[in-house]
């Protein structure tokens, strides 16, 4: 039975990137339709898996004057770093992936020819993927190398050409993207702040920061949601507005920052979509041995990919949330794509995402038609020019 991915009482954490441009905020109804699926991932039909996990819980990036949780007594790891809780989350996601996909791998588990693992070039993302792998591939058989250490080394690669998370913070890196985002903010944000002036005045009065832009708001919201994730009670003044009201506003800022327009979505997600297209195409052609690709990433990464397949309003991507793309052969011997989602590390079984433009399962040809609208022909740098 279909339901909505609506998590009004779940505390969620903001991404590790600074949103520096004024963004518009619109309605917040969650439109992702989901169906619960079995842990049986169709052993006989599954050919290839792409997993895109967000990193685990981290230390806050921002701070505000009246924040009660400041300093190393609360955050000894350092600004933006992966925390103990984040490591626990990623290990648990690794175990969930092991449970679902262990049949893809041989008797001894990990083999380099079966798996490609990548990460964006952020310390917390590398660490998150490393812990995920520890949970997914404890050494077995010939991979056991020490009598008491239940761990084995697995390589993690980075391709800097695919990761465009820098667009969230650097307005000069891609002029066309920056121009689109500025126009979007100018067209929507002023009216939104006018309509919600009482709310923003309330947040500003209690936080010590005058809230006049999206980044002002995020500066307050990030440490509140992050502290809450780690078990610290939010300030009492947030009781009337947290989590529902504050999370809704932050979630929309988040989506608009990477996919507020088609051009923005294309420039942000196009390189990764092209890469994933290539992996699926090569697997169908029999040109790759890998059975699984893991791409460690950020909340903005997952939001961009979900926007690319047609979702317009997306709940905030929680720490360790993982987007799954499975390639299957149907009973009619036709290739199809199934998209699944682990909402967080506590999700024992993923839910099946019904893409707005192509119901699950989606034929490979239709899936390609959707994502290729956002793929970039030629060089990304050329597409960024005004």
Structure in words:
The protein is of the alpha+beta class and 386 residues long. The protein has helices at residues 84-101, 123-136, 175-195, 197-207, 214-229, 244-259, 262-285, 299-308, 364-371, 380-383, and strands at residues 3-4, 33-36, 46-53, 115-119, 292-296, 322-329, 335-342, 351-354, 362-363. Strands 1, 2, 3, 4, 5, 6, 7, 8 and 9 form a 9-stranded mixed sheet that branches. Helix 3 packs across helix 7. The termini are far apart. Mean pLDDT is 88; it is low at 6-39. It comes from Laodelphax striatellus.
Distance between the termini: 46 Å
What is the element string, with H for helices and E for strands?
EEEHEHHHHHHEHEEEEHH
- What does the overall shape look like? globular
Total individual domains: 1
Per CATH, the architecture is 3-Layer(aba) Sandwich
User: What number is the mean pLDDT?
Assistant: 88
Strand element count:
9
CATH class descriptor name: Alpha Beta
CATH fold descriptor: Rossmann fold
Organism: Laodelphax striatellus (Small brown planthopper)
Family: Belongs to the histidine acid phosphatase family.
EC number: 3.1.3.2
Protein name: acid phosphatase
Summarize the structure.
With 386 residues, this protein is an alpha+beta fold. It is 37% helix and 12% strand.
């Amino acid at each position: 039975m279909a339901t909505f991915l609506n998590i009004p009482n779940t505390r969620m954490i903001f991404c590790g990137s600074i949103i520096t441009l004024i963004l518009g905020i619109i309605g917040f109804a969650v439109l992702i339709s989901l169906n619960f699926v079995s842990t049986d991932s169709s052993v006989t039909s599954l050919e290839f898996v792409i997993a895109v996990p967000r990193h685990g819980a981290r230390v806050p990036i921002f701070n505000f004057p009246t924040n009660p949780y400041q300093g190393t007594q609360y955050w000894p790891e350092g600004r933006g770093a992966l925390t103990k809780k984040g490591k626990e989350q990623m290990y648990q996601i690794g175990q969930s992936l092991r449970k679902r996909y262990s049949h893809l791998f041989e008797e001894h588990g990990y083999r380099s020819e079966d798996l490609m693992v990548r990460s964006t070039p952020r310390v917390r993302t590398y660490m998150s993927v490393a812990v995920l792998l520890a949970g997914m591939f404890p050494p077995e058989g010939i991979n056991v190398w020490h009598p008491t250490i239940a761990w084995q080394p697995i390589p993690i690669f980075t391709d800097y050409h695919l990761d465009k998370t820098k667009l969230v913070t650097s307005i000069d890196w891609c002029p066309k993207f920056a121009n689109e985002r500025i126009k979007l903010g100018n067209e929507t944000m002023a009216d939104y702040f006018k309509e919600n002036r009482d709310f923003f005045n309330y947040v500003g009065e209690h936080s010590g920061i005058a809230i006049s832009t999206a980044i002002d708001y995020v500066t307050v919201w990030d440490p509140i949601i992050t502290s809450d994730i780690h078990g610290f009670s939010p300030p009492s003044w947030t009781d009337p507005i947290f989590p529902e009201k504050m999370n809704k506003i932050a979630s929309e800022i988040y989506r608009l920052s990477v996919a507020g327009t088609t051009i923005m979505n294309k420039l942000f997600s196009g390189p990764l979509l092209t890469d994933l297209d290539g992996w699926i195409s090569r697997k169908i052609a029999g040109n790759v041995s890998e059975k699984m690709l893991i791409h460690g990433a950020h909340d903005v990464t997952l939001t961009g990919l979900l926007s690319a397949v047609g979702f317009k309003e997306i709940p905030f991507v929680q720490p360790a949330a993982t987007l799954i793309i499975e390639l299957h052969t149907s009973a009619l011997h036709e290739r199809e794509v199934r998209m699944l989602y682990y909402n967080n590390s506590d999700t024992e079984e993923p839910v099946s995402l019904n893409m707005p433009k192509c119901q699950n399962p989606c034929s490979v040809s239709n899936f390609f038609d959707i994502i290729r609208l956002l793929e970039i022909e030629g060089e990304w740098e050329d597409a960024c020019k005004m």
